Amino acid sequence: MTGPGGRSDQRSLGDHRQMVVPMDVASRADRLRATMDEAGCDALCVTRLVNVRYLTGFTGSSAVLVVLPGELVLVTDGRYREQAAAELAAAGVVARVETAMTQEAQGQLLAAAAAGCARVGLEAEAVTWAQQQRYRDRWLAGCELVATTGLVEGLRLVKDAGEVARMEAAAAAADGALAAVGPRLALGPTEAELALDLESEMRARGAAGPGFDTIVAAGPNASRPHHRPTDRPIGPGELVIVDFGAVVDGYRSDMTRTLCVGEPTAEARRMVEVVAESQRAGVAAVCHGAGAADVDAACRAVIEEAGMGEAFLHGTGHGVGLEVHEAPRLALAATGTLVEGSVVTVEPGVYLPGHGGARIEDMVLVTKQGCRALTNAPKELVVSP
To answer: Is the pLDDT assigned to residue 5 strictly greater than 80?
Structure first.
């Protein structure tokens, strides 16, 4: 976390003793304002809570941030009066915090904040039909409402040093958890038990919790990319996909490894070898200026050449940050290019119903010349029984 003015609070994270470097939260609203005129709005109502957090440091479950040319107004409810003031001050963000207990009263506070603004932007992908009607008919009736897309998300594409440090700490917690839990596979835990062990070990290493629902998929269950852990015991010779991550100060990590207790079948080993080669090709294709679709194509070409193209059921990767799935997307139909400072995953996989599957994933920081892995757990397949 950051102290007043965005300074580090000088705490270390779990066993890694990594100093948390400051994030430049206070400058984000000004960078957002620079995009608002082109988007056709004089003010912007930020309703996605993850975007409110990005711009202010506020972590509550109820808030709308009104971004005005010379002021920020955070509207929330009475539960968060003290929390909002403390978190904004810790992030170095200057804003007026307004609280009200009812939805209608909060709407009136929004109306008062936006008074005098001719064009007010709404986050089109985060506002429901009913909310848009309330803004149009009651709270911002005198304003032209402008549908905006991706204004804050565009800023979030490039991580500052403080954001990267938090993601590295989250990745290190996951790396350490896998090192601790991996040998327990030989004891024949259930999928659910292994998932719980991973989550407990990540917390023990400084994480606030898992970054998303942990995936442990063993044997035939591994043919389902987003399988939910069950009470099925993990048996010897089975491929086991573990897809998990940690969260530190709101920032996430994401990593997948494919493991096996004892010797896998020849078919299973080939699956993993093909996926590993594909993943190396994808990582090698990542750099500033690389086409998002080209990274996907680099992974897909290896799997198709091995005759498994139809078993690669998803895109190659995605951005990670305050959310585990955010822009950019690395897939066949993806557009745009990667930029220095983005964090993305490279995670090809193959899935054969009735047999199982394999996936290998790293989270990498895009650099000028290539990328730097933030997840560093070993990728050896066999876990000694």
So the answer is: no
**What backbone phi and psi angles, to 5 degrees, belong to 323?**
-120, 150
In one-letter notation, the amino acid at residue 81 is R
Q: Which residue has the tokens 């679709």?
A: 293
| H or E element at residue 361 | none
The phi and psi torsions of 174 (rounded to 5 degrees) equal -70, -40
Q: What crossing angle do the helices spanning 28-36 and 49-56 adopt, rounded to 10°?
A: 120
Q: Assess contact for 11 and 157: CB atoms under 8 A.
A: no
Tokens 């929390």 map to which residue?
Answer: 83
Distances (CA, A) of 221 to 141, 180, 186, 317, 331: 53, 23, 18, 21, 24
| Cα–Cα nearest to 377, from 253, 281, 265, 215 | 253
Residue 37, C-beta contacts closer than 8 angstroms, at least 6 positions apart: none
Place of tokens 């300074």: 7
Listing DSSP states for 33-52 in one string gives: HHHHTTTT-SEEEE--HHHH
Which residue type sits at 244? Answer: F
Return the amino acid letter for 296: D
Q: Which two tokens stand for residue 285?
A: 């294709």
What's the pLDDT tens digit per position in 202-212?
A: 999 999 999 99
Quick one: pLDDT band at residue 382, thresholds 50, 70, 90?
A: confident
Our separate counts of H helices and E strands in the chain read 10, 22
Listed in sequence order, the residues at least 6 apart from 307 whose beta carbon sits closer than 8 Å to its beta carbon are none
For the chain, give the percent of residues with pLDDT over 70. 95
What single-letter DSSP state applies at residue 60? -
Residue 21: per-residue pLDDT? 87
Range 313-338 average pLDDT: 97
Residue 12 has pLDDT above 80, yes or no: no
Compute φ and ψ for 76, nearest 5 degrees. Answer: -145, -170
Distance of CA 56 to the CA centre of its chain: 18
pLDDT band of residue 8 (cuts 50, 70, 90) is very low
Q: What Rg value do the Cα atoms of the chain yield, rounded?
A: 23
Assigned token pair, 206: 């400084």
Residue range 210-256, pLDDT digits in tens: 999 999 999 999 999 999 999 999 999 999 999 999 999 999 999 99
